[in-house]
Amino acid sequence: MKKIVILGGGFGGIRCALDCAKKLRGKAKVTLIDRNAYHSFTPALYEIASAYQPDDDPFALELRRAVAVPYKDIFKGKNIDFIQAEISSVDIRVSHIVLAGGGKLDFDYAVFALGAQAADFDIPGVYDYAYQFKTTDDAVALHNKLETSFRDAVQGRMPLPIKFLIIGAGFTGIELAAELMMCARKLSRRHGFNRRAFSAVLFEAGPEILPTVKEVERKKIMARLTDLGVVVMTNSAVENVLSDSVKLKTGQTVAGTAVVWTAGVQANRLLETVHGLPVTDKGKIMVDENLRVQNSDKLFALGDCVEFVDPKTQKSIPGLAYHAIDQGKITASNITAVIQNRSSHAYKPHVNSWAVPIGGKFVLVQISSSLWVSGFLGWLIRLWIDVRYFLSILPLKKALALFKKDLVLFVKND
Ligand SMILES: Cc1cc2nc3c(=O)[nH]c(=O)nc-3n(C[C@H](O)[C@H](O)[C@H](O)COP(=O)(O)OP(=O)(O)OC[C@H]3O[C@@H](n4cnc5c(N)ncnc54)[C@H](O)[C@@H]3O)c2cc1C
């Protein structure tokens, strides 16, 4: 029986494991390794940071449960072995994976699905002083900072306005800033402050936000941010970060209550340590059109940890969950093809579609290159995308229960 090991249980790794187990039932042993016991549903992390919770939840369990999907629920009855462990090294010459704590695993086929991690672009202070925004823990930490800032302000220990400085006006920074404004309105009302008690500032290094989206979409997004009171500072490359301020390359210093970093990601640093793994100068794995690691017949790679140039556009595809999921599907079918001596399929990236929530029940969704919608209809479409994803990885009852839990929690600040 062939041994397939999937490294990382993100969007791509899970899809690949589920599909391999289904296609190769009885012919392969599928194992997935992740450092966490749960899969993080990153598209809703901004909702955790900005959740309005009148009830006490000191360990943030309710918040965590809304975005952390246990692997035991995903893999129950699916013939997949799940190992919770930190992968400390991989030796591809002898097909060995070493786990922190000493465990070892060998494989016939391995899939690198380790995602990306925050990058600081060598800006001093980013890792030391800024809140990161990549994991469930990061989102909970930011949520706690928002709540404690308001509590401190009530007791006179924190000057008003409370000001969150968000570096990076990409999709993540935008959705976070917008939703923080919504939550802050509720918190201001609860604590007897007016709307000016909180502000969110978004820093963008370039002359405009989201340079790759259409002008009409950008205007719509900017108008919504302005309506909500988010301050967008363009041409504002950050030079230095402290816990209560950012210094810009222009020489200006902007003071605030907290600094949040959403500006950049890099490939998982573990990959650099894998001797013989072909990686780009950005540390991403080089794959062929079938998502096989270059010059290897037993290694595959997918998602945010690979460099994949779309043959149509000649551009690298961005790190997005739906690309990782599609790549997970193709990888599973190509591993199956190799085991069954059939020919492999090339991965063809989907059209460029995305959704950006901008506060409350307002989402701008680009459905295809010529079709987009915004507002409440966009919000409904986004709900549909979320529930479809939950249904694709969980049994019906669990998927609907998670969707309902999220809906109830996330609309509290809308
Ligand atoms: C805040 C935020 C919001 C986002 N919103 C959206 C969105 O709305 N829509 C969208 O399409 N995309 C969104 N993305 C991007 C999306 O999350 C990624 O593109 C997607 O997660 C990539 O999937 P992946 O399978 O490659 O890796 P990931 O989902 O990152 O999974 C990698 C897994 O590997 C595990 N891992 C890493 N290193 C180790 C190790 N050494 N040992 C053990 N386990 C390890 C991690 O725990 C993780 O579970 C968002 C990202 C962030 C951070």
What does this molecule look like?
- This protein has helices spanning 11-23, 45-49, 61-67, 71-75, 126-129, 136-154, 171-190, 215-228, 321-339, 376-393, 396-410; strands at residues 2-7, 28-34, 38-40, 68-70, 80-84, 87-91, 96-99, 104-106, 109-112, 116-118, 131-132, 162-167, 198-203, 231-233, 238-242, 245-248, 253-255, 258-261, 265-267, 285-286, 299-301, 306-307, 354-357, 363-368, 371-373.
- With 414 residues, the chain is α/β, with parallel strands linked by helices.
- It folds into 2 domains: 2-35 and 85-118 and 265-350, FAD/NAD(P)-binding domain, CATH 3.50.50; 126-261, FAD/NAD(P)-binding domain (3-Layer(bba) Sandwich), CATH 3.50.50.
- The chain has a 5-stranded parallel beta sheet with strand order 5-2-1-9-21. A 5-stranded parallel beta sheet has the order 11-18-12-13-14. Strands 6-7-8 form a 3-stranded antiparallel beta sheet, with no helix packed on it.
- The longest helix has 20 residues, at 171-190.
- The mean pLDDT is 95.
- Bound molecules: flavin-adenine dinucleotide.
- Flavin-adenine dinucleotide is lined by residues 8-13, 33-36, 42-43, 45, 86-87, 113-115, 133-134, 172, 268, 270, 303-305, 319-322, 324.
Short summary of the structure?
The termini are far apart.
From the helix content, strand content and strand pairing, which structural class follows? alpha/beta
* Proportion of beta-strand residues: 15-25%
Q: What is the CA-based Rg, rounded?
A: 22 Å
Q: What's the overall geometry?
A: globular
Largest sheet: 5 strands, parallel
What is the count of β-strands? Answer: 25
Q: Which ligands accompany this protein? A: flavin-adenine dinucleotide
Named CATH topology of the largest domain? FAD/NAD(P)-binding domain
Output mean pLDDT: 95
Unreliable residue runs: none
Order of strands in the sheet with most strands:
5-2-1-9-21
CATH superfamily of the largest domain: FAD/NAD(P)-binding domain
Domain module count:
2
- Name given to the CATH architecture of the largest domain: 3-Layer(bba) Sandwich
Helix content: 25-40%
